[in-house]
Amino acid sequence: MSIDAIKDRIPDYAKDLRLNLSSLANDVTLTPQQLAGTFVASALAARNDEVTSAIVAQFASTLSPEALTAAKSANAIMAMNNIYYRFVHMAGGEYSKMPAQLRMSVIAKPGVEKADFELWCLAVSVINGCDLCVTSHEKIVREALGASAVQTAARIAATVHAVAVILQGASALGD
Prior knowledge:
GO terms for molecular function: disulfide oxidoreductase activity; hydroperoxide reductase activity; peroxiredoxin activity. This protein has helices at 3-9, 15-25, 32-46, 49-59, 65-91, 105-108, 114-128, 131-145, 147-173.
């Protein structure tokens, strides 16, 4: 399956998503590796098998095996961190001063350029809605790659997530 197959399944009432997916898949703001990794990490975070399969099929050949693993790792580590740090932020108090005591070694050695990995962590954090993680990764990405890269990652995350939600709903409704 490819992105074109996914676009064909998007109902007409969500045609804006189809157009956004097309334009973002051809975006030149990011390097090919950054773009592909952002799509893959976002698809994994969106939790839709059909969307994930199509996006990985579309972009995997753009990524080295190490970069593909790093995109998967960004999703994995942020799936944990987004929940934990969202709790810390919501609960407040002493928790922000306590060590997380969660293993996060992949952040120090992701197997790709640090800026690329941070970009992918940002996209996953946008989807998972963790204010603390978005703020932290946005700052690093903005300093390393600029505000346009931050915005592009957020646009990819938003669009991939919306496509996953729409296709899940369309399937449930028989659309």
